[in-house]
Write a structure and sequence with these properties.
It contains two helices and 17 strands. The chain is mostly beta strands. Strands 1-3-4-5-6-7-8-9-10-11-12-13-14-15-16-17 form a 16-stranded antiparallel barrel. A hairpin with a 5-residue loop joins strand 5 and strand 6. It is globular, with a radius of gyration of 23 Å. It starts with a helix and ends in a 7-residue tail after the last strand. The relative contact order is 0.12.
């Protein structure tokens, strides 16, 4: 009997060790905060947009919308909430994450908590994305994506979109440099360009310029937006940004408020 108890105890220890090994194997690999170049243990980021007066100075707050992104302890976004100036929730998304930190879906609602859609993404045993499915507000399949590819930061490099009847509709491709998105293009089902974007950054990894080109039939439009960063907090995250149009006119100012977890709280 004593030998049996010893064997059982040994198996229990082995099982515990195996569980610890599995936990180690499931260590989170990806982080939104790292990709977004945000410093510290950020718990949430709140963005409030303001109008700009004729002199380029900050004016009244825009009526819509104040955006709040909440992050888990691994630095990955788990919830997005958008409210108007009166505090009414206009849109909200709750995100699900894979054990490695990959984004694998969302449940979306609109004003009044009404469903507005959802999405789920498969991940294989190698931690790579497989098929992604998007559903409408009633839970019915709308479109799905195949040929999804990702880089070492867990960011999507490409996909192909099909409608619910498996008709190929369009494809997208993104380029990155050390986690910073440098460009993005979409093409229709016959390979004709639909849109393209390119981005520039400063030495902090903050976006300073976005160039967007859209092609509709035989018409092509290009929009250039530039950004300057007017202030930062004590650990280096920007707290105010000004947006300029292609003529150099200030068109919007955004202020950010960060909430840090206790080990990063300001003293």
């Amino acid at each position: 009997m004593r030998n049996v108890l010893i064997i059982m105890a040994g198996l229990f220890v082995l099982a515990c060790n195996n569980q610890e090994d599995k936990k180690a194997e499931k260590k989170v690999k990806y982080s939104d905060l790292v990709n977004e170049r945000l410093n510290g243990n950020v718990q949430s980021v709140e963005e409030t947009p303001y109008q700009v007066d004729s002199a380029g100075k900050i004016g009244n707050m825009d009526s819509c919308c104040i955006d709040l992104v909440e992050y888990d302890e691994n630095g990955n976004a788990v919830k997005f909430t958008s409210k108007d100036s009166k505090g009414t929730v206009k849109n909200q998304s709750v995100y699900t994450r894979h054990e490695t930190g990959l984004w694998i879906g969302s449940t979306d609602t609109k004003e009044g908590g009404k469903p507005s859609g959802s999405m789920k993404v498969g991940v294989d045993d190698k931690g790579q994305y497989t098929v992604a499915e998007a559903f409408d507000s009633t839970g019915k399949l709308d479109v799905y994506y195949t040929d999804t590819k990702q880089n070492e930061f867990g960011q999507i490099l490409g996909w192909k979109q099909y409608d619910k009847d498996s008709v190929f509709r369009m494809q997208g491709e993104a380029t990155y440099d050390k986690g910073l998105q440098m460009g993005f293009t979409t093409k229709d089902s016959v390979g004709k360009l639909k849109s393209s974007s390119s981005f520039k950054y400063n030495d902090k990894g903050e976006q300073t310029e976005a160039l967007q080109t859209n092609v509709i039939k035989d018409s092509t439009t290009t929009k250039v937006t530039k950004y300057t960063y007017d202030s930062h907090d004590e650990i280096g995250n920007w707290t105010q940004r000004t947006t300029f149009d292609d003529k150099g006119k200030a068109i919007k100012i955004v202020k950010r408020v960060y909430t840090y977890r206790k080990d990063e709280e300001k003293k």
